[in-house]
Design brief:
The chain is mostly beta strands. The protein has one domain. It has one helix and five strands. A five-stranded antiparallel β-sheet has the order 1-2-3-4-5, with no helix packed on it. About 9% of the residues have low confidence.
Amino acid sequence: MADLKRMGLLRPIVDGRVRAITWKNDGGGLDKLGIIPGAKGIRFVKRDDEGKLAGLFVPYFLAFGAESVPGETPSLGRTRPSLPRCVWL
């Protein structure tokens, strides 16, 4: 998440353009992974070899320790993110 934010990929979509990470594949072509941020999580989208879209939604959620008050952690005084649970389309 920190790397995606640092790269500017978690900013809201403007003019309908989805931000993407691009890399070279083994065949010499380019592959792209689209990143669509939302209020409840991030949707990653990619086209398969047939041109169909496949996606993965990773929701945001917060976890708290047994002693913490909702919205705070005892040492930091703020929420801390937990590992996401992935949901395929």
